[in-house]
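Exercise (ungraded).
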Amino acid sequence: MAEYPWPWQYNFPPFFTLQPHEETRQQQLEVWADLFLKYLKDKNRFSLSIGDQNSPLFHNESLKRRLSPEFVLTILGELERTGHANPLDKRRQEWQVYWFTLEDYGNMVYDWVQVTGQTNTICTLYEIASNEENSHLGFYGVDEAVLLSALRLLEEKGRCELIEMDGSHGVKFF
Amino acid sequence: MNRFAYVEARLSPNESFVSRDNKVKIYDGDQKTDFEDGEVVLTTHRLFWGRPGEIARAAVTLCLPLSYVISVSEETTASNFFGRKTRIIMHLHPPASDKGPGPLDTSRATHIKLSGKNGLSVEFHSALRETLNARVWEILLTSETIINGVASSPTSEPANDRLARIQKRTGIGGIERHLQAKAKATDENIALAFQDLSVLMAMAKDMVEVSKTISSKIREQKGEISDDETVRFKSYLMSLGIDDPVTRDNFTSNSAYFSSLARQICEMLLDPIEEQGGMMSLADVYCRVNRARGLELLSPEDLLHACEQLSGPIRLRSFPSGARVLQLDSHDDDLIAVDTLEKVEAAESLAVEELAKQLGISLLLAKERLLVAERLGKVCRDESVEGLRFYPNLLLGRD
C-alpha cells in the first residue's frame, strides 16, 4: 500500500505536543481532527482505539514522536463535538469515527430512497451500504454499525423503522 | 551466693563504672533469694547489687569481685508479660579464704543467676561480656605486684598506660568518654573559628574605612594621580561597595525604609540590568545587592519588600511560572518574543539550555523568554523523551 500523503505538520515535531497557546492549540486540533477523518476514510476504517499506540496515525516513527493517549482523547473529543465521533465504551477507549456526521448519512440514505422510489419497502443494511450501483454515493461502503446509528437517528424522526431479524437488521422507509 | 561480700559501694582507684540495670534479682544457683528488685552496677572490677538508692548513697551493698567469674552464659525463659526474657548465669570460682562477711556463709551452688521482671537489658549484657573479656582486674594485680616487687621502677608506667588505654576503651563508659572528648574538641574548634571570624569582621570594618579614606584622598589630590588611574581606582571602589548603604537603623517606619532601599537598588542595578538584556532574576539581584553592601547585608525578605516598592525604570515582575525578576520598564514582551523567535528560527529549534548559552543568561530567564514568545504565539513547543524544545510556530503561521 502506498504511503499515506501526510500533511506537512506530520513531520513537524511540535505537532505532537498539545500546545498551551490558545489560538495555536485550536489550529492544531483542527488539523489533527481533519487528519484523523481523512486518514480513516483513506483506510476505510470507522473505528479507532486509543490503545492502538503503533498506528502510524499516532506514531511518527521517523520523527520518534507519539501522540499521548490524552492528546488522542482531546482530538476525539473535538471530533465528538462536531458530530464525527462517538465513544463506544464508558472509559472512552474505543471510538466510532465517521467521515460524515450521522445526520448527513441519514439524510443521504433517505434522499437515495426517495430518488430510487424504495419507500415502504424493506431493505437490508447490506443492500444500502454495499450496493454496487451506489458506489458514487457518500454512504457507499459505510460500516454497518455506523449506518445503524444513522438509521436509528432517522427512526427517531419517524422517517423509517428498523426491523431486527436473525441478528441482522432490515429497514423500512416511509 | 557465698562469693558475695558486704562492701561499701565506692569505686577504688583505677576502677571505673561500666553499666547498670534496674529491678534485678539474684538466684543462688537455681534458688530464688530475697535479693529482689535491686539495682546492679557493673564496674571494671566488681559487680554491685543494692536496694534502690543504696548504691547512689554509697551504702554497704552486695559485691562480687569479677575475678570470681569463670564464664557467663544465659538462659531464656517465658516472661509474664512479654514473650521471653533472658537470665544471665555466672559460673564462679570457689570463695577465697580471706573473703569478708557476706549474705550467705555456705552455698553448694557454684553459679548465680541475674534476672529481672523482663530480663536484663541487652546493653548490660554485652557490657558484662566485654568487661569480663578485658580482665582489667588482672592488670591491676600484675601492675601492683610490679610496683611492690621493683619499687618506683619505670617499667610500671607502660603497664599503667596500658591500663588507662584499656579502661578508656572498655564498655559503654568508654564509648561515652570517647564521645565526650570528641564533643569537647569540637567545641574548642568552633570557639576558635568564631574567634577568627570576629577578627575578620573587625578587620573588614577597618578595610572599609581605609577604602573610604583613599577615595576621599583621591578626590582631594586629583592632580597627583593621573585621571586615568583615578577613574580606574574609583571603579574598583564602586564595585567593592556602596558608600553609604541604607540600613534599617536610620528609619523609624518600614515603608520609608523600603522605599529608600528601593531607590538605592534601582540606582545600583540600572546599568547591570541593561547589560544583561533588560531582565535579572531575583537571585542574581540578591547576590549583587549584598555584594555591593559588604557588611550591611540584606535579608531576602527585606530585598523582596523593597523590590515590590520599585516603581521607577525598574519593576518587579512575576511570571506565570512563579519566577520573579527585576525588569526594565522599557523592556517589552513583544520585543522579547520577536527577538527570541529570531534566535529560534536561526537555529531551527532551540532547547532552553541552548538559548541560555547563546545569550549568556540564566536558564530561568531563557525559559521565561521562550515562554513569553510562546504566550504570544511566536514559538511552539515540542515535548518528547529528548526534553523540551521550541520551534517557530509554523502551526499558526503557515497555510
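Further reading is listed at the end of the chapter. For now, observe: The longest strand of chain B covers residues 17-28. Chain B has three domains: 5-134, 170-240, 248-397.
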